[in-house]
Amino acid sequence: MAREKPDPDLSFFTNKEHTFQAGQPDNEILKLILNAIPHYVFWKDRQRVYQGCNKKFADAAGLDHPDSICGLTDHDLPWTKQEADFYRLCDERVMLNNQAEYNIIESQIQADGILYWLRTNKVPLLNRDGEVIGILGAYDDVTDLIEKEERLRHYEIITASVDDLMAIIDSDYRYLAVNDAYCIAYAQPREFIIGKSANEIVGEDVFEKLQKPEIDQAFSGRVIQFNSWHSFPGWGERHINFTYYPVFDDTGTVINIVTKGHDSTKTKKLENQLQQVQKMEAIGRLAGGIAHDFNNILSVISGYSDICLQQMDEDNPFRSKIEQISQAGTRGSSLTQQLLGFSRKQVVRPQSLNLADEIKTLSGMLERMLGANIEIETVLEIKPWLIKMDRSQFEQIILNLAVNSRDAMSEGGNLTLEIINRTITENEATHYALKPGDHVMLAVTDNGIGMNPTIQARSFEPFFTTKPKEIGTGFGLSTVYSIVKQNNGTISVESKPGIGTCFTLLFPRSPDIPQHDRQDLPGTDGAMAQGSGTILLAEDDHALRTMCVGILADLGYTILEASNGKEAIESANRFHGKIDLLLTDVVMPEMSGPEAAAVLSSQNPDIKVLFMSGYTENAVIQHGVLENEINFIHKPITPKTLARAVQKCLTKNPEDTE
Fold first, then answer.
1. Are residues 486 and 472 in the same domain?
2. pLDDT digits (tens, 9 = 90+) for 214-231
3. Residues 388, 352: contact at Cβ < 8 Å?
4. What is the pTM for the complete model shown?
5. Fewer beta carbons under 10 A from the terminal one: N or C of the chain?
6. Given pLDDT bands bounded at 50, 70 and 90, which one contains residue 69?
7. Does 385 score more than 90 pLDDT?
8. Which of 125, 141, 157 is the last residue in one of the domains?
9. Please, are residues 487 and 505 in contact by the beta-carbon 8 Å criterion?
10. Does residue 550 share a domain with residue 499?
11. What H or E segment, with its residue span, contains residue 133?
């Protein structure tokens, strides 16, 4: 005779009259199964009266045997009245809605008087006709997990406002907790980091070579300290002092590691700058002494060679050899001037200079020196402010920077010389290490091979050169640096491999020159005007992007953020409203600002574009990066210059650019 198929609706809890039974063979097997599983299991009838449970549940309820539960309610068990009422309320909701509920977090004081935290799942029990006849529940003890999460929450609250990078890592190198600074540095939300392995966040190579060996030592019970330079997605290149603290359990076993990373970039840079200054001063003293003695030797060489040439017939067979000696003396004299300029022992005669006029005077010599394959463009302020400097020193600056650009453009290119009046604000003064006030800016830009960060960091070091020994002396840029500092100025460099290099020099306006009316100068007007509209901001520097978002949002604009051109396009495609302005950096990874502007302009012809860059506007155009009429703002930007540029761009009529 064929066996009937098992009933799929859990009706093995009931007989034909739909009442709970015990003692049947199938139920005996069920009891064995229920008592074997590591969960607390119970079931109740439609009136929320217990009809059975497994041994684990009976022990928690203080009962001698699981059968003792039959006929009792939650109010008959050791739970508090509040707990019992809550359980019965959940039971009624599950049965009334005929819908299971999972992962209900409940508290429970069990027979031993201890408070436990439970994670409960409840499902309605149905008869063969699909009618709800009771409820089946099962729960786990998650007290340890809840307490652990609570400790982690307390840790996150305590460390939330700490600037140091704080994290807790378990023995599998997975994150248990991180603070806000950690999330910002790695440009990831906390929900993404928690549970991830450290190598997934910091990178496989960095983790295996730098962090894992130190973490392993910390797991041996030692406090570990070390420091290194590290590149963060949200912070950029930073120097970090790391400390790893072991966390012990009651048995003395290390179970977790608390990691702390203190950003010591400013301190490290100040140390490097101090070392650089000390090195420059030491080499300067040496160079000054050598130049002084070398000048005497050159005087003799050049003097006697000139005498010989004056007294020598044109057809004398030795004349060409003496001319070579004279030319060598001239080259040596030029090198001596660089040594003296570097050592600041050069005799200088400061005078009021109009740098635009000086550039015009030097342009002919520059064209001959650079050659026909390098095109020179000058962009000069119509009425530049005057500065006080020795004319020969300024010529040295221009010639050295021009030669440096020429060597970076072996196959030809473009060299841009710009003179611009700049009023340095309080915020900019900190960036440039200058006093606020009127300055004259000289920008020398080329579209040569550019420099990587390592070379860029050493570009002003004496004797450092990437040129062959027979070409480079390593004194060109260090001499420029020394002259600029001697004249209370500042020099900075921005360079991208394959894009080019821009040297920016700032000199204070001569104090004995009458001040012009400054009402039209950037940053000197009153409060920033409020605005409206949606701005798509694309900037790969996280800190700068965050600053711009804050400035523009406070002015009333709606801001969409992107870290490069590709993200900008994706953000625009996701946004269903109107984007009024694309505010974008020029040089960014993956996709540049101009490339993104071209795509977005084709999709939305009415969108306006405002470029910003550390390269000067005309240099950017020279590079071929930008074409046609552009709106441009020069970095570093200030809140007022940004607000004015955005407002001007948004209110600009299309015919204004024609």
1. yes
2. 999 999 999 999 988 888
3. yes
4. 0.36
5. N
6. very high
7. yes
8. 141
9. no
10. no
11. strand 132-141
For residue 77, what are its two tokens?
């068990």
Sequence-distant (≥ 6) Cβ neighbours of residue 448 within 8 angstroms = 405, 407, 408, 409, 413, 500, 501
- Same domain? For 360 and 481 the reply is yes
Q: Which two tokens stand for residue 584?
A: 């974008």
214 in any annotated domain: yes
Look at residues 651, 650, 639 and name the one whose alpha carbon lies nearest to residue 527: 639
Q: In this structure, are residues 390 and 349 in contact, taking their beta carbons and an 8 Å threshold?
A: yes
d(CA 315, CA 152): 94
- Domain boundary pick from 463, 491, 508: 508
Distances from the Cα of 533 to the Cα of 115, 225, 292, 552, 653, angstroms: 55, 49, 64, 10, 16
Q: Which domain range does residue 73 map to?
A: 11-141
Residue 17 banded pLDDT, cuts 50, 70, 90? very low
Length of the chain as a residue count: 658
Segment 535-558 shows an average pLDDT of 87
Query: How far, in Å, CA of 128 to CA of 489, rounded?
Result: 91
- Given a contact cutoff of 8 angstroms between Cβ atoms, the answer to whether 586 and 611 are in contact is yes
Does residue 514 register a pLDDT over 60? no
pLDDT at 284: 61
Same domain assignment for residues 363 and 480: yes
The 3 state secondary structure assigned to 505-570 is EEEECCCCCCCCCCCCCCCCCCCCCCCCCEEEEECCCHHHHHHHHHHHHHCCCEEEEECCHHHHHH
Contacts of 214 (CB under 8 A, 6+ apart): 224, 226, 242, 244
Establish if 283 belongs to a structural domain.
Answer: yes
Rounded to whole angstroms, the Cα distance separating 14 from 30 reads: 13
